[in-house]
Automatic annotation (TrEMBL):
<dbReference type="InterPro" id="IPR039702">
    <property type="entry name" value="FPS1-like"/>
</dbReference>
<keyword id="KW-0808">Transferase</keyword>
<dbReference type="GO" id="GO:0005737">
    <property type="term" value="C:cytoplasm"/>
</dbReference>
<dbReference type="Pfam" id="PF00348">
    <property type="entry name" value="polyprenyl_synt"/>
</dbReference>
<comment type="pathway">
    <text>Isoprenoid biosynthesis; farnesyl diphosphate biosynthesis; farnesyl diphosphate from geranyl diphosphate and isopentenyl diphosphate: step 1/1.</text>
</comment>
<keyword id="KW-0479">Metal-binding</keyword>
<keyword id="KW-0460">Magnesium</keyword>
<keyword id="KW-0444">Lipid biosynthesis</keyword>
<comment type="similarity">
    <text>Belongs to the FPP/GGPP synthase family.</text>
</comment>
<keyword id="KW-0443">Lipid metabolism</keyword>
<dbReference type="InterPro" id="IPR033749">
    <property type="entry name" value="Polyprenyl_synt_CS"/>
</dbReference>
<dbReference type="GO" id="GO:0004337">
    <property type="term" value="F:(2E,6E)-farnesyl diphosphate synthase activity"/>
</dbReference>
<dbReference type="GO" id="GO:0045337">
    <property type="term" value="P:farnesyl diphosphate biosynthetic process"/>
</dbReference>
<dbReference type="InterPro" id="IPR008949">
    <property type="entry name" value="Isoprenoid_synthase_dom_sf"/>
</dbReference>
<comment type="pathway">
    <text>Isoprenoid biosynthesis; geranyl diphosphate biosynthesis; geranyl diphosphate from dimethylallyl diphosphate and isopentenyl diphosphate: step 1/1.</text>
</comment>
<dbReference type="InterPro" id="IPR000092">
    <property type="entry name" value="Polyprenyl_synt"/>
</dbReference>
<dbReference type="GO" id="GO:0046872">
    <property type="term" value="F:metal ion binding"/>
</dbReference>
Amino acid sequence: SNGTHHSGAVQSDPQLFEAQFEELVTELTEQDLTDSVLADALNRLREVLHYNTPGGKRNRGLSVIGSLRELVPPTELTQDAVRRALLVGWCIELLQAFFLVADDIMDASVTRRGQPCWYKRERVGLDAINDSFLLEGSIYRLLRRHCRAQPYYVHLLELFTETSFQTELGQALDLMTAPPGQIDLNRFTMERYKAIVKYKTAFYSFYLPVAAAMYMAGIDSEEEHNNAKHILLEMGEFFQIQDDYLDCYGDPAVTGKIGTDIQDNKCGWLVVTALGVMTPVQRAELESCYGRHDSVEKVKALYNTLQMPTLYHQYEDHSYQRLQKLIARHAQNLPHAVFLNFAKKIYKRNK
């Protein structure tokens, strides 16, 4: 297909995925809207796509084809089906880019994936709001163009719109729980924390790619999707807790990012768990230090006193065992490898 295979060399999924990106950019910026008066806007779209979509670990996008390969026997998986799975993977990466561009404005973040946030770029500023809309709109143009004739088309549309809304509700909870400059640790409960994680991260990062692959494989029974959702939301919760842990204890040389949760007054797993095991005196100290740039080391010292790394590693082991049980119970009709491939990537990772 159009020169991506040289001399019959078989390309890996990540290579095929990579190669597809430029085709999608061309398609979105050159082939669809040929009205010449839109040239400047389409050049802007190209720049927005290039700056915000690639980069990152690509786990979400690649897990569509990864899951589809577990769900469909290799002999039944056509080259077109593979290309569509890669495309839907890019749609998930676009959804992520749409959220991240907007989140960085709301959080007043400075860097993302080792470069300045898009809105921080010279001459971008709050125009980035519209750029995030362009990223979202690109998803539906691509799905329409490539999947419109497929029996799962409406399922995919509903999956993307539903997941977007769930993520937006999660972001609303997050924004309400830790408004900048208002530190109120009473809002930081485990129940609220888990709700934010489930809606803001777990749905789009874990359920979305596997559910998309299931629909593409012709699996549309609500029961199977609920079974998968059960397992994947649990994984998503662990993934975020691990992310929160690495924010404080990860090595920036490995993770590629410098943690800021403490000074950002984030409702993270460490602070929520610490609140449950500390004395009133320690709580008073935390009240005076959390959410401040000058007291990060004091908060970390308190975490160490409370043995947070030990509590985290206990949690990690328990979570892994619980996940194995969930897979045994809920994945009777689904290949366990779909879930185990994810689990291998995230348990014991350090970035």
